[in-house]
Amino acid sequence: MLTTPSAPERDLVAGLAQPLRVLAEDGTRHPDPTLDPLLDDVDEELLRSLHLDMAVIRALDDEAVALQRQGELGLWPPLRGQEAAQIGLGRALPETDFLFTSYRENGLAWCRGVGPEEMLAVWRGTALSGWDPFAHHMATPQVIIGAQTLHAVGWAMAARAKREDALAVACFGDGAVSQGDVNEAMAFAASFHAPVLFFCQNNQYAISEPVTVQAAVPIAQRPAGFGIPALRVDGNDVLAVRAASLLAARRIRAGEGPMFLEAVTYRMGPHTTSDDPTRYRDEAELERWRRRCPLARVERHLEHLGADVEQLRAEAQRRGDEARTGLQEAVTALAAPAPESLFDNVLTTEPAHLRRQREQFRAFTASLAPEGAAS
Ligand SMILES: Cc1ncc(C[n+]2csc(CCOP(=O)(O)OP(=O)(O)O)c2C)c(N)n1
Q1: Are 363 and 315 in the same domain?
Q2: Are residues 303 and 199 in the same domain?
Q3: Ligand 1 pocket, residue 175 CB under 6 Å
Q4: Are 77 and 184 within one domain?
Q5: Is 6 within the bounds of a domain?
Q6: φ and ψ at 353, to 5 degrees?
Q7: How many Cα atoms sit within 13 Å of 221 on the Cβ side?
Q8: CA 172 – ligand 1 centroid, Å
Q9: Where is the Dehydrogenase E1 component domain (predicted)?
Q10: Is the CB of 213 under 6 A from ligand 1?
Q11: Which of 29, 148, 184, 231 could form an SS bridge with 100, CB 3.0 to 4.6 Å?
Q12: How many helices (H) and strands (E) does the chain have?
């Protein structure tokens, strides 16, 4: 039987006054009654591996920006600053949970084993869609803001109908919360107790629009209106994001319906490589967030624990370089597809009108061939 959440709003949201955090900026560990029970397994080894994952996705992201600047990619949406949010979530969930993301979640794609050639193809314009969603349990990037939340809820309903244990995760930004799709998805998920995690990376800007313009109260307060419980966590604290994701997934898997996480973070770079953030935000703000760097925070914590941080940095450099080389090699290996392949995979069976268009396109390209050239 479906139950209707009846808890008062204040019981549905945690972290409103101050986002939940267990690792302070200086690397000291602080207790948190909500998250601590999910942190029992944290040891030096786990901290090192979380750090290395964050270092690798930062290197990968930096390289993709460089490739765009060299003209190798048409566009790239950088994730710098959001490493803890993406690795914290990515490392908390089994691979059978299905991710529905927008374009900035390349760190999650990396966690799901998406290869560099699959990650770059769309941004180089050599494919309409980068990878096989079922091979990676991750849908390809959605550019229509918030649309993936509806796909996630649909997938979650199907998973439940098939009595699968998996949940769907819908990842989106602060700007997306103003979209109708996201609100419809939350209303539907709450009404039918869909096993879905709504994961909002609040990186403070929707292109140039600061979050304060569209949200007078913390974003995590909105799902309460739908009866969806929410946690607001420090999105630059990888331990907090991981623990909150584990908590949410456990609750959803237990059949308690959807849950919402707001990871409060910051996009350090431009919205995409086409954007100039100096036109809408100032250096002082950027500097404040530089001090909250998710990687430095884990390093400082490991230092407090007496770990060999120099060795860790060297390892991070080595793995980062490997990721960079992978991207460089992948980009040059991506071949331009035959123009006609535009018509492939549009629909599962080709209807007459599409076949006609394909023939017309073929005739048109043949008409462009120089006189006397073989067709
Ligand atoms: C439905 C729709 N409206 C507008 C756009 C143009 N657009 C692209 S990115 C963006 C801002 C998105 O901001 P946010 O949801 O916070 O995600 P972020 O890019 O910061 O990760 C907008 C408005 C779009 N892609 N889709």
Answers
A1: no
A2: yes
A3: yes
A4: yes
A5: no
A6: -70, -35
A7: 8
A8: 9
A9: 54-310
A10: no
A11: 148
A12: 14, 8
Structural domain for 173, as ranges:
13-333
Average pLDDT (317-332) is 97
Interval between CA 213 and ligand 1 midpoint (Å) = 15
pLDDT band at 89 (very low <50, low <70, confident <90, very high): very high
- Is residue 1 assigned to a domain? no
CATH of residue 315's domain is 3.40.50.970
pLDDT for res 23: 98
Ligand 1 closest atom vs CA 176: 15
How many structural domains does the chain have?
Answer: 2
- Cα–Cα distance for residue pair 18/371, rounded to 1 Å: 71
Q: Name the pTM for this structure.
A: 0.94
Q: pLDDT tens digits for 225-269?
A: 999 999 999 999 999 999 999 999 999 999 999 999 999 999 999
For residue 205, the cross-strand partners are: 210
Residues 362 and 286 in one domain: no
Structural domain includes residue 262 = yes
Dist. CA 203 → ligand 1 center (Å): 12
Per DSSP, helices labelled H in 146-210 are 147-161, 180-192
* 80 and 33 housed in the same domain: yes
Whether residue 235 sits in one domain with residue 356? no
> Mean pLDDT across the stretch 68-93?
98
Please spell the DSSP secondary structure of 94-153, one letter per residue. -TTSEEE-BTT-HHHHHHTT--HHHHHHHHHTS-SS-S-HHHHTBPPPB-STTHHHHHHH
**Ligand 1 neighbourhood includes 145 CB (under 6 angstroms):** yes
In terms of domains, do 281 and 355 share one?
Answer: no
Q: Determine the distance separating the centroid of ligand 1 and the alpha carbon of 103, expressed in angstroms.
A: 10
21, pLDDT greater than 70: yes
Is the shortest distance between the CB of 206 and ligand 1 below 6 Å? Answer: yes
- Amino acid, res. 208: S
On whether both 58 and 44 belong to a single domain, the answer is yes
- What's the pLDDT score for residue 7? 45
Q: What is the pLDDT of residues 121-141, one digit of tens each?
A: 999 999 988 899 999 999 999
pLDDT at 372: 65
Measured in Å, residue 178 CA sits from the centre of ligand 1 at 10
Q: How far is the CA of 165 from the centre of ligand 1 (A)?
A: 31
- Give the position, in ligand 1's atom list, of the atom nearest the Cα of 104: 21
Residue 67 within any structural domain of the chain: yes
